[in-house]
Amino acid sequence: MIDPRRLRVLRALADHGTVTAAGQALHLTPSAVSQQLAALEAECGQQLLRRWGRRVSLTAAGELMVVHANAVAAELERAHATLAALDSGVRGMVRLASFASAITLVVAPAIASLRSGSPGVTMQVQDVEGHASIPLLLDGEVDLAITEEYRLSPRTDESRLTRFPLYVEPFDVVLPTAHRLAEASEVDIDELADDDWIAPKPGNPCRDVLMIVCANPGIRHVSDDFHAITTLVAAGEGVALVPRNAFTAVPGSVAIPLRGEPPLRRVFAAVRRGSADHPLLKTVLAALLDAAPGHANADRGSST
Hints:
The chain has helices at about 5-15, 20-25, 30-45, 60-85, 100-115, 130-140, 205-215, 225-235, 280-290; strands at about 50, 55-60, 90-100, 120-125, 145-150, 160-175, 195-200, 220, 240-245, 255, 265-270, 300-304. By secondary structure, it is of the alpha/beta class. The chain folds into three domains: about 5-85, Arc Repressor Mutant, subunit A (Orthogonal Bundle); about 90-165 and about 265-290, D-Maltodextrin-Binding Protein, domain 2 (3-Layer(aba) Sandwich); about 170-265, Periplasmic binding protein-like II (D-Maltodextrin-Binding Protein, domain 2, 3-Layer(aba) Sandwich), CATH 3.40.190.10. α1 (about 5-15) crosses α3 (about 30-45) and α5 (about 100-115) packs across α9. The model is unreliable at about 295-300 (pLDDT under 50). Belongs to the LysR transcriptional regulatory family.
């Protein structure tokens, strides 16, 4: 018999790449992770890992077991949701991770709506960068994530998620009011090729968008806080590319649409596959969708 708890350890290794990182995600020691993986290999009768000193990678059998582990995890989530649905009262707390502008635009209004419409349901919110929320969700640290994808970026980890689109927003260019193009109605990104840029840190998908649409931008300052970025722009330290709903006007700065087809940020809520029918999550998701701009036309759930 294969112990499903050990499949979770294998998934964590596949997600995080090292025994140490998998242990940190599962709150286990590296030794305990190694023991669980060795026991899983014995149960499967197959070598699941290749080992080179302290480095490990998945064999073909290991990759196959991760696919089955994802399916098992989804079924367990579904079973939990089904059992929860038997309870006639919807009460409890949902842990949610979201980036700041989505908290302002969607999460806070949803909390206010729940307080009056479903007082037994509460949320615990973590403010994290959009690209950090999905790992928290897959590791079980939160129940629901609000995150983002871009027109130019591929999806990842989608076989393990159910997605609920919330809204779409373009990126605008943010300029100092003294900039030569500050009075323009639209700006061509090529017109800013020689400007200094203020950009998010490496690893932030918003920085990736800048690197794709602007060839070799000269990045002078870095910050993951869009308000801080806008403040630096207002101080005359450069220009920036900012999602429209993340822009907060600062004296000395102006946001201008890009000419042509701008890069887009698609914002969505995500839950682990199989958990979308949990009564608590259904209640919170409904509140988030109702609070989202243009919610009447939103797709109410997309599993991939």
